[in-house]
Write a structure and sequence with these properties.
227 residues, alpha/beta, Zincin-like, four-stranded mixed β-sheet, 10 strands, 37% helix, elongated
Length: 227
């Protein structure tokens, strides 16, 4: 086999699924009783699909993560799909504020990689998590816990314990993209795999599914900039 893969077993899992992460790593999620040989056979059968996923230039890149921008006057930063001007304030602020532009204390400029990070994470908790609860009610599903997390290679995830996690960087994306990721992860509480039924559930909640997927493929790397 021309690629490596890791196996994650769980006693709660009934089906074997293969995930190609955004960094091209291959992860096999398997039931506890699945043997190494059975897993190898499934991976081999999906060999062509895995290769196609790993070489997809729209979603998987060999480029390093963007270095981020300088926090200087006239620069801009993403928030909910739009670029907003950055203004460095000499005095009177001790934390980043937003008022149709980012107001950044001059004292934070030297730590530019962290200057907006805390603000983004706070906004993600404030704006994304309530939408998770709203979509869950609409879908008629229950989750154990919803969290905002720091994950480079996934926008969202649904765990075997029915918890859902969302990448804080999503707060930089348009609302319809955020809603797509939320609906996608919650739909896994109804259908574990990406079946026709699964996509019907997602599309019933978010009509702009295809637009959101295209946006993430084409613009997703911009969300990974430090600023």
């Amino acid at each position: 086999m021309d690629f490596a893969y890791t196996v994650q077993r769980s006693g709660k899992r009934r089906k074997l699924t293969i995930v190609v992460e955004r960094d091209r790593t291959v992860v096999v999620h398997a039931p506890m009783g699945a043997t190494d040989e059975a897993i190898r056979q499934v991976v081999e059968a999906k060999r062509h699909w895995i290769f196609e996923k790993r070489k997809d230039p729209r979603k998987y890149r060999d480029l390093p993560h963007p270095p981020g921008k300088e926090l200087v006057n006239g620069e801009s930063a993403l928030y909910l799909g739009r670029q907003y001007r950055v203004e460095v304030v000499a005095a009177g602020l001790d934390a980043v504020q937003f008022n149709q532009r980012f107001l950044v204390p001059a004292s934070k400029v030297a730590k530019r990689k962290m200057a907006l990070r805390e603000w983004y994470i706070a906004r993600a908790n404030e704006k994304i998590l309530p939408r998770v609860s709203s979509f869950a009610r609409s879908l008629g599903v229950e989750f154990q816990r919803a969290r905002i997390v720091d994950n480079r290679y996934r926008w969202g995830s649904c765990t075997i314990k029915d918890s859902v996690n969302f990448n804080w960087r999503l707060i930089k994306a348009p609302t319809f993209v955020i809603d797509y990721v939320i609906a996608h992860e919650l739909a896994h509480l109804i259908e574990a795999n990406h079946t026709a039924r699964f996509w019907n559930v997602v599309r019933a909640q978010v009509p702009k599914v295809e637009e959101a997927r295209v946006w993430l493929r084409e613009q997703g790397q911009a969300l990974e900039e430090e600023v």
